[in-house]
Automatic annotation (TrEMBL):
ATP binds at residues 13-16, 56, 60, 163, 169, 172. Belongs to the UMP kinase family. It comes from Rhodoferax sediminis. This is Uridylate kinase. UMP binds at residues 55, 75, 136-143. Homohexamer.
Length: 239
């Protein structure tokens, strides 16, 4: 018989940068299409997928254009940037035959529906992809924290942190050819070794909720599928 997925419901955190491809900012069409194909493949396996999308490709509250700005104002701009990414992602998903729903943590109801937990759960049960936009809805937080928060709220079995590197390494693999990938690592060990896997708030939330994190590369073809099938891919951070 065909192998069954190891996870029923997952929370996928995509950074804004993941949408840029090789561009300097914004959204690269080919990149977003390819990413959606990877996601479509796991939904076809019957896995329920929720996505938290970042905004760093458009605006980051703590750097760049925001220098000299009021921090909270800049952070709200960052949250709005994630709404733009969410719309682009949902549009690409819908064109690829998926049914995507965007839910925003800040009220912007002419554009996207508000985040309502029971409704998000309903969509997931119906096999729709739910894209959580506007992070946590609060300044001074990040979309990593939104991923941990929403992941816990929807009862995801795993938070998937999509990165450019295919896991957590003992050293920077670009600088040290001897660096090896951790297949798995405990939260405690990751803290002791000061491995910045998610930001500290997000990491603490996952740890408290015993919500495991998988770090993997979204750019490696088939990696997302291998993760949901429970195969050796990326790095698992466990309690
Ligand atoms: N942001 C925020 N609160 C949140 C999530 C995001 O204020 O709950 C703002 C913050 O300014 C951040 C920006 O939105 O810099 C973009 O989010 P993030 O940096 O997490 O995006 P990513 O790095 O994943 O692209």
């Amino acid at each position: 018989p065909d192998a069954k997925p190891a996870h029923k419901r997952i929370l996928l955190k995509l950074s804004g940068e993941a949408l840029m491809g090789d561009d300097a900012f914004g959204i690269n069409r080919a990149t977003i299409v390819r990413m959606v194909e990877e996601i479509a493949e796991v939904t076809r396996l019957g896995v329920e997928v929720a996505v938290v999308i970042g905004g760093g490709n458009i605006f980051r509250g703590v750097a760049g254009g925001s220098v000299g700005m009021d921090r909270a104002t800049a952070d709200y701009m960052g949250m709005l940037a994630t709404v733009m990414n969410a719309l682009a992602l949902a549009d690409t998903m819908n064109k690829a035959g998926l049914t995507a729903r965007v839910m925003s943590a800040i009220a912007i109801e002419q554009v996207v529906e508000p985040y309502v937990r029971p409704k998000a759960l309903q969509y997931l049960e119906e096999g729709k992809v739910v894209i959580f936009a506007a992070g946590t809805g609060n300044p001074f937080f990040t979309t990593d924290t939104a991923a941990a928060l929403r992941g816990a709220e929807i009862g995801a079995e795993l938070v998937l942190k999509a990165t450019k590197v295919d896991g957590v390494y003992t050293a920077d693999p670009k600088k040290d050819p001897g660096a090896t990938r951790y297949t798995k690592i405990s939260f405690d060990e990751a803290i002791a070794k000061n491995l910045g896997i998610l930001d500290a708030t997000a990491f603490a939330l996952c740890r408290d909720q015993k919500l495991p994190i998988k770090v993997f590369s979204i750019f490696k073809h088939g990696a997302l599928k291998r993760v949901v099938m429970g195969e050796d891919e990326g790095t698992l951070v466990y309690v």
